[in-house]
Design brief:
Two copies of one chain form a homodimer. The first copy, chain A, is of the alpha/beta class. The first copy, chain A, is built from ten helices and 18 strands. In chain A, the strands form four sheets. A seven-stranded mixed beta sheet of chain A has the order 6-5-4-3-2-1-18. Chain A has a seven-stranded mixed beta sheet with strand order 7-8-9-14-15-16-17, with helices on one face. In chain A, strands 10-13 form a two-stranded antiparallel sheet. In chain A, β16, α10 and β17 form a beta-alpha-beta unit. In chain A, α9 packs parallel to α10. The radius of gyration of chain A is 22 Å and the shape is globular. The N and C termini of chain A lie close together (about 10 Å). The interface between A and B is large, with 37 and 37 residues.
C-alpha cells in the first residue's frame, strides 16, 4: 500500500503569494484524486510536477470560491492537452450549470467525458468505488452546504499462514478462496477452519478530508480511528469567536476532533491570511493532540505499508 | 504624466509555474486599471505588492478562461478586505450572469458596488472617461467576440509662452482661457491670436491592448501612432498556420501590425505553453519591428514625461 498526500494550497479565502487556496492531491497506489480545487491549483500541479491527466476523479466539498475557482482552468487545460479519459467530478449540483455556462460562452466542448455527480448533503454515503478505494461523504457544518470526504482503501484479503498450508497439505489452487475467508475441505470431507490457515487481513488505510467546518463532534463517528485526518484550523484561539461566527475551526478545535476520533495523524490547514506565520497553529494544536502536522503548499506526506496483502 | 504597465501574466491558455495567464495592470498617474484577469491574477498582484483596492476599473476582452478565470477570486478578495469604493467592470454581457450565479451559491453579497458595463462588439467606441483617461474599444477578430482597449490620456492644455505674456502684457487671470485655446482680446479690442501666446499641447499618451486576435491590419486605424502597443504574439513563424486556425498571431505578425501603426513600442506576450523559452519570439518580432519588447510576469514598463501640461 502506498498513500501520498500533496498539499497544493493551504490558505483560506484570501491567498498569499506562498499560500494558495485549498487543494490537495491524494494518491492511493497509482491512482490520483483531487480534493477541492482553489484558484491556481493547475499552476501548483505544474510546479510540483504532478501529471494532471492521471487525476481520475475530483471531489469538491462546497461552493465557496477558495475551494473551486481553479476548477474551470484545470478542466480547460485537461481538454487542451488532449485528455480522452473520462473524469469523474463530485460536487454540489450548481457547479454543473457554471461549467456549462462557461463552455457555452467560450464556444468550447470538452473532448473527454466529464461525468458529473451532483452531491447531496447532511448524511454520510458512499459516492465512489473503484479498484483502489471507496469514498464516502462526511456531513460538515458550514455556512453553506458542505461535504467532507472519507477515503477508504479496499478491504484487504486474509493473509496465508505458510506453515499451516504445509501442515494441512492444502493444494495451491485453494489459496485464492482461503484469502477470501473460505474454509478448506479435504478430499475426505474434513473441514479445516479458515482461522487455522490465515491471519486477519491488514487494516484498510483511511484518510478523511474535512475542509471547512465549525467545531462539530458529531462527525467523530464517521472518522473514528482514521489513519490521517485533514481538518481545517483556520484560526488561532484568540479568534475563537470569529471562528464560530464564520463556521470555521481553530487549530486547537481541530485537534480536539482528532483526539476524539483517535486519528493516527492530524494535518491542519486553511489558514486565515491574517497570519504570516503558522507556527502558533501547530503549537496550539499539539497542546491538545501531539500527533499534528501543518499543511503547507508543496508539502508531501507519504505512507508506505510493505506487508503483503 | 506617468504611465506604468505591469505584466501580471504573459502566457496563453495553459499556464506554467512561471507564466500565468493574461493580466496587466495599467497605471495612469495614480489611477489603476486592470486589463483581463486570468487565473491567479490576485496572487500575482500580491506577489508584486500592488494594492488591489486601488484598482478603479477592470476591462475584460473576451470570455476565454485564460482572460477572466481569476476575476471571481479577485472580486471576492476585494469584498473580504472591506472594499467600499465602486468598481467598474467592462466585459461581455454573459459575465454578469456568471458572477451572480457564483454569489448566489456562496450566499454572498459584495459590500461594494459592482458597476457592470456589458460591452458590444465589432466597432470602436468610447466606453469610459474619468479624470485621467478615456478608454475605447478596438474590434478584434478572434474565435469568440473580443474587444481590445485603447487608453488615451486626456487632452492636454496648450502651453503658455512666458515671454509672449510679457510682450503682450496679458493679465494673469486670462491664462486659463489661453490654455484652452482662446485668443486674447485687449481692452482696446485688439485680438492677439492664441498661437502667438501658446505652444501646442503635449501629445496625449496612448496605450493599446490587443489581447487575442488573428493578424488583422484593419485595426491599424484605431491604433495609429499609439505610444505603447501590446499585441499578442502567441506563436513563432513555424506555427503560423496554427496561429491562423486558432485566430491568434505570430510574434512577427504582431510586429507587422506595430510597423503599420507606427507604434512607439510594441510589447508581445500570450505565449503558447509549448515554448519554454521566449527568446525566439523577440528575435522574430524584432526582425520586422525593432522597437519590440517581451512581456513576462512581473515585468514593469515605466514611462515618464515631465513636460508641464
Amino acid at each position: 500500500m502506498a498513500f501520498n498526500l500533496t498539499i497544493l494550497g493551504s490558505n483560506s479565502s484570501i491567498p498569499t503569494a506562498s499560500r494558495f487556496p485549498t487543494s490537495q492531491l491524494v494518491e492511493f497506489n497509482s491512482s490520483y484524486y483531487l480534493l477541492d480545487c482553489g484558484e491556481g491549483t493547475q499552476i501548483q500541479l505544474r510546479k510540483y510536477r504532478i501529471k494532471i491527466q492521471r487525476i481520475r476523479a475530483i471531489f469538491i466539498t462546497h461552493l465557496h470560491g477558495d475551494h473551486y475557482f481553479g476548477l474551470f482552468g484545470l478542466l480547460g487545460t485537461m481538454h487542451l492537452l488532449g485528455r480522452n479519459a473520462t473524469l469523474d467530478l463530485f460536487a454540489p449540483p450548481e457547479l454543473k450549470e457554471m461549467i456549462e455556462l462557461q463552455l457555452k460562452v467560450a464556444k468550447t466542448k470538452f473532448q473527454f467525458e466529464l461525468n458529473f455527480h451532483p452531491l447531496t448533503f447532511g448524511e454520510s454515503k458512499v459516492i465512489w468505488e473503484d479498484d483502489q478505494v471507496s469514498v464516502s461523504t462526511i456531513p460538515l457544518q458550514h455556512r453553506i452546504p458542505c461535504n467532507g470526504f472519507l477515503f477508504r482503501e479496499h478491504s484487504h484479503k486474509r493473509r496465508i499462514k505458510k506453515e499451516a498450508l504445509d501442515t494441512f497439505r492444502v493444494p495451491l489452487q485453494k489459496i485464492p478462496k482461503l484469502k477470501e475467508g473460505a474454509d478448506y475441505v479435504t478430499d475426505n470431507g474434513e473441514v479445516i477452519k479458515n482461522e487455522l490457515l490465515t491471519h486477519d487481513p491488514r487494516k484498510s488505510f483511511t484518510f478523511a478530508f474535512c475542509s471547512d467546518t465549525k467545531f462539530d463532534p458529531s462527525i467523530v463517528p464517521y472518522i473514528k480511528d482514521v489513519d490521517v485526518l485533514y481538518h481545517e484550523g483556520t484560526f488561532l484561539e484568540s479568534e475563537r469567536e470569529r471562528a464560530h461566527k464564520t463556521f470555521h475551526s481553530t487549530a486547537a478545535e481541530a485537534a480536539e476532533i482528532a483526539k476524539m476520533a483517535n486519528a493516527g495523524l492530524l494535518i491542519i490547514g486553511h489558514y486565515s491570511a491574517r497570519y504570516s506565520s503558522i507556527e502558533a497553529h501547530l503549537e496550539q494544536a499539539r497542546k491538545v493532540y501531539k500527533s499534528t502536522e501543518l499543511a503547507w503548499d508543496g508539502r508531501k506526506f507519504e505512507f508506505r505499508d510493505n506487508a503483503t496483502g
